[in-house]
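Let us practice reading a record.
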Amino acid sequence: MTELTNLQNALLAAVAGAEDEAAIEAVRVAALGKKGSVSELLKTLGSMTPEERQTRGAAINALKTEIADAIAARKSALKDAAIAARLKAETLDVSLPVRSSPAERGRIHPISQIVDEITAIFADLGFSIAEGPDIETDYYNFTALNFPEGHPAREMHDTFFFNPDEKGERKVLRTHTSPVQVRTMEAQEPPIRIVIPGKTYRQDSDATHSPMFHQVEGLVIDRKAHVGNLRWVLEEFCKAFFEVPSVTMRFRPSFFPFTEPSFEVDIQCDRSGGQVKFGEGNDWMEILGCGMVHPNVLRSGGLDPDEFQGFAWGMGLDRIAMLKYGMPDLRDFFNADVRWMNHYGFRPLDMPTLFGGLSA
């Protein structure tokens, strides 16, 4: 019996050591195949005496049954393990990912963001928002703003003119938001404190110009407005908009038909390092135009220049957006490129506030 015990131990160890289905099949063939070790023992039963067959034969059959059961159990376990490993390796999640909400996916266009930022700043200074039509008459776009006949801005190379109407009058796409100043003076008694963001149109197109672009103008009319007030308003605006603690501004004499005196305003900046930083450095950058409202414009608005005076300023919204947020090409504002919007756009629920940060 020692021989059968040793064979039993060896075969059970081989069964337990099989690591895959191919290995357990090799153990089965070696033990129970036609020339397997157990099968060879079974072939000896015919040559045994009846007494030997009752003892040794029974032991050999019991060994065969035990080894067959062990092989079947191990084979089943290996098959289950192989299936589990394959499922783990070939797992494919066919469920749809959770879609983000519109508030997460959507982006606010930088121009809309800039308008909101400007609104927040000037609302805090006591200003209101004013708007006017994009299609204007020659009177409001030019004459009422003290543009004399023959002024270069009236020429076709600068202004989009409509065909003459039945009266022979030609309307224009407004070249600036200044017509809203006159319309406001006609409709509202002083004191007037307004800012006017809106679209404007000129025949120009390159990396820093577009046939349609955005401007913002401001207008203050009362009995005591002066250049000192104008400077303070512009300094407070630039500090808040560019989010710097202080700015240094330089006023240079200039000419605009609708203001007298007129100024171009430069702001101190640093252009080193590949970006523009305001409130520091030794460079200057022109930021806007401004001046005291011309007496003729006051008269066009129905106000007496001997009783009222005021100041106004204007700047390009697209340009100050490019300066603040580092956008290199104005044309990208109008290309409707989703990739550009995802990069430069703003989250819709991050509303600009002076206490929370305009571009937080």
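A brief commentary: DSSP finds twelve helices and ten strands in the chain.
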